[in-house]
Amino acid sequence: MLKITQRPGASPRSLFLLLEGRLAGPWVEELDAYCRKMSEDDQQCTMIDLTGVTFVDVAGRSLLARLWGQGAELRASGCLTRCVVEEITKRSRMGSVNEP
């Protein structure tokens, strides 16, 4: 199960998402649909707090990487989520350095 809590961000159009539970299986699509709906409503997810996440599968990592690439900050604590965030941000930075 995944619980998504929305909070206002620093600007009127920005939102902060607090995730709790497992970002895996059908819950990845749930978060993706939630973020797409935010975009349709002209709102931007500026920060995703993963401190309450207990597991992230491959699809969840891919979604987080895409959201990070769209400008969302990923906040993590604990070994699992810190490793996921480091993997996403390091891989993306390395890719941009190697591109022409």
Strands, helices and their partners?
Layout lengths: L1 E7 L5 E10 L2 H15 L3 E13 L1 H12 L3 E3 L3 H20 L2
Parallel strand pairs: 2-3, 3-4
Antiparallel strand pairs: 1-2
Provide a compact summary of the structure.
The chain has 100 residues and is α/β, with parallel strands linked by helices.
How would you describe this protein?
The chain is α/β, with parallel strands linked by helices and 100 residues long. It has a single domain, classed as STAS domain (Transcription Regulator spoIIAA), CATH 3.30.750.24. Helix content is 47%, strand content 33%. It contains 3 helices and 4 strands. α2 crosses α3 (79-98). The longest helix is centred in the C-terminal third of the chain and has 20 residues, at 79-98. The protein is globular. The relative contact order is 0.16.
Shape descriptor: globular
Radius of gyration: 13 Å
Helix content bin: 40-55%
CATH class: Alpha Beta
Strand content: 25-35%
From N to C, what is the helix and strand string? EEHEHEH
* CATH topology group: Transcription Regulator spoIIAA
What structural class should be given to the helix and strand makeup? alpha/beta
The domain tally reads: 1
- Helix segment tally: 3
Q: Please tell me the CATH architecture by its name.
A: 2-Layer Sandwich
The CATH superfamily label reads STAS domain
DSSP summary, beta strand count: 4
**End-to-end separation:** 41 Å
